[in-house]
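Hi P.,

Sorry for the delay on this. The queue was packed all week, but I finally got your sequence through. Input first:
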Amino acid sequence: MFGLEKDDKKVKKFDFDLEIEIIEDPHKAKKLLQLSEQRLATLKTCLKNGKDPAKFDNYGILLHGYAALSRVLKKVVKKTNKR
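Then the structure:
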C-alpha cells in the first residue's frame, strides 16, 4: 500500500547528472561550491545595500537558489567521500 511494500525486485540506484559529474571530477565540486559562495556573498551585499529595488525579489530568488545549490553540493561531496 502506498508503495511501501517490500518488493523482491531490487531498486536500481539513481544518480543525478550533477552527482555523476562530481564523481568523475571531484575538483569540479570545489569550483562550483566556491562560485556559489561568491555569488551568495555578492547577492547578500546587493540586498543589504538596497541596490536596484525593482529587482529585489529576483535577487531573493537567486539567493535561495544559490543557497540550495551550496547545500546540495556539500551533501554530494560528503556522499562521494564516503565511497
